[in-house]
Amino acid sequence: MKDRKFVMDPSFSEWEEWLVGRGFPKFRAQQIFGWLTKGIIDVRRMTNLPEPVKIAIDEDFITDGFSLEREYTSEKDGTRKFVFKLHDGHSIETVLMRYKYGLSVCISSQSGCKMGCSFCASAYAGFGRSLTSGEMLAQVAVVSDIVQERISRVVVMGIGEPFDNYDNLILFLRTLNSSKGLNLGARHITVSTCGLVPQMIEFMCIDLQVNLTVSLHAANDELRATLMPGAARYKLVDILDTCRDYVEKTGRRISFEYSLFDGVNDSRADARQLAALLRGIHCHINLIAANEFPGSPYKRSKSENVTAFMEELERLKMTVTLRREMGTDIMAACGQLRRGLREKSDQ
How many CA atoms does the CB half-sphere of 90 hold within 13 Å? Predict the structure, then answer.
């Protein structure tokens, strides 16, 4: 079949329909879905399925479209980065981080990214394609199977702009949250966007209490257009008006990410401008001491500037934290992800 779906793409009800159409009992859907949500894609490992069902799955679906190509482990903090190869040759990267509360997985939503952020290694890899909902789900389930532990939290902050792949993102979130899927609480899921306003408006209307993070990295449109040219079509005033609507409609606090670059956006004056911009929004500011990568035009902000920036925000009564960066030595931290096999020589 030329139009075969990846085996993790169908919903539970779609599996039931497929089984009936193939002349198999509908109850097998529970067994199939149970294996897939455990990260088992190889039908040979689905031990409670009869051979005719396994053969039919192999015939009708892509079952070899998600293979582990390379794995890196940080010597600093144990963070693990997985490079998966998809059925059409595209590669994606997924990061596993261990915290006191458990395991967190940072997944990619696209192979490559269209946003062109000048500080992000993913932009330099070019754009491949958007991922299917099943390819996003597989990053969580397969990693869980590899490490043989349950995943506690999922963040959609890897390669790609999630809201540029909106429909597949929502399908993924629903399966991730569903009791028939991975049964992960919505409040343990975070989606990060560069600020695509139309999709933000849609997102505030879904019936899932998923956390939303907006990447700012600048407190004025001119600088933001330099740092984030792909997101610059939406002005800060429009993004922040949408954020206010989001908070009012959902009752949930919104987070803003702000990466600090040496001599670019890390002065006390920049902190004051950021505080003025966000004043009145029920929010949390997540500062990131920007991570460098080979060829990056920006340098990491000096530690004293990071401290001063944070202190200025706190003086202005803003809620702010400095993100603990993990996996920097394996290019797994914020802004460092890219299609790693192309540049494996500098890993």
Answer: 20
Give yes or no for a contact between 21 and 11, defined as CB atoms under 8 angstroms apart: no
- Spatial distance between the Cα atoms of 336 and 293, rounded to a whole number of angstroms: 6
pLDDT at 36 over 80: yes
CA 143-82-189 angle, 5° bins: 50
pLDDT at 339 over 50: no
Which amino acid would we find at residue 73? Answer: T
Percentage of residues in the chain with pLDDT exceeding 90?
80
User: Looking at the chain, which residues constitute the CATH 1.10.150.530 domain(s)?
Assistant: 5-62
Q: What is the CATH number of domain 5-62?
A: 1.10.150.530
Taking alpha carbons only, the member of 213, 113, 197 closest to residue 154 is 213
The CATH fold assigned to 66-346 is: TIM Barrel (3.20.20)
Q: Among residues 292, 228, 226, which one has the least CA distance to residue 261?
A: 292
12 CB-near residues (< 8 Å, 6+ apart) = 29, 33, 178, 180, 181
Q: What angle do CA 92, 99, 115 make, to 5 degrees?
A: 35
pLDDT in tens, 8-34: 999 999 999 999 999 999 999 999 999
DSSP for 223-263?
HHHHH-GGGTTS-HHHHHHHHHHHHHHH---EEEEEEEBTT
Give per-residue pLDDT as tens, 195-221: 999 999 999 999 899 999 999 999 999
Whole-number Å distance between alpha carbons of 178 and 186 = 9
Just list the catalytic residues: 93, 334
**Contact between 148 and 141 (Cβ < 8 Å):** no
Q: Is a pLDDT exceeding 60 seen at residue 343?
A: no
Copy the structure tokens of residue 37.
Answer: 């949500």
Of the candidates 327, 335, 333, 331, the residue with the CA atom closest to the CA atom of residue 345: 331
The answer, yes or no, to whether residue 72 has pLDDT greater than 90, is yes
Within the chain, which residue ranges are assigned CATH 3.20.20.70? 66-346
Residue whose token pair is 């960066």: 325
Sequence-distant (6+) residues with CB within 8 A of 55 are none
